[in-house]
Amino acid sequence: MSYFQYVALAYGVFFAVLAWDFAVPRLQVRRQLREVRNRLARARRQQAAAAVADDGELSR
């Protein structure tokens, strides 16, 4: 392996790790925000269903 190949490979690995360190936290934040939105939507649906079921009328 020549010096140029060594340096090129080192730069390639560096930029790959740099891109990984940039992308992964953003993907994790997006996933966590999606989970929170889904949890809130589920809670709202449950509250709406409870409000409809508790309208005072008897169901058959």
TrEMBL record:
Q: Which residues cross the membrane?
A: 6-24
State a single Pfam family of this protein: CcmD
Gene Ontology BP annotations: cytochrome complex assembly; heme transport
Q: Where in the cell is it found?
A: Cell inner membrane
Q: Which organism is it from?
A: uncultured Stenotrophomonas sp
Descriptive protein name: Heme exporter protein D
Q: Is the Transmembrane keyword given for this protein? A: yes
InterPro entries cross-referenced by the UniProt entry: Haem_export_protD_CcmD
Membrane topology term reads: Single-pass membrane protein
Ordered alphabetically, the record's keywords are: Cell inner membrane, Cell membrane, Cytochrome c-type biogenesis, Membrane, Transmembrane, Transmembrane helix, Transport
Q: Please tell me whether the keyword Cell membrane is annotated for this protein.
A: yes
- What NCBIfam families does the annotation carry? cytochro_ccmD
Reported function: Required for the export of heme to the periplasm for the biogenesis of c-type cytochromes.
